[in-house]
Amino acid sequence: MDKFFGFMEGPVGRVLRIAAGIALVWFGVGRMGGAGGLIVAVAGLLPVAMGAWGPCLVRLAMGRPRRA
């Protein structure tokens, strides 16, 4: 799991998380519409924020500290 976390917290992983979040926002607003689309779009903001901030949300959810 540490390799996965290292990748996701690296530059490529962060860009992938931001891109996935933008895709979710686009899909929710542009394709789905309605209340369901709004929920998907708001959920898409989480990977964008976490990608911009840095830490992997899965690591935080599991309660595993970052290694120096």
Short description:
With 68 residues, the chain is mostly helical. The chain is 81% helix and 0% strand.
Task: Describe this entry's structure for a reader.
- Helices cover 81% and strands 0% of the residues.
- The chain has helices at residues 2-8, 11-32, 34-53, 57-62.
- The protein is elongated, with a radius of gyration of 13 Å.
Structural class: mainly alpha
Task: Give the number of domains.
Answer: 1
Number of helices: 4
Major sheet description: none
Tell the overall outline: elongated
What distinguishing features does this structure have?
68 residues; mainly alpha; 81% helix
Task: Summarize the topology.
Layout (H helix, E strand, L loop, with lengths): L1 H7 L2 H22 L1 H20 L3 H6 L6
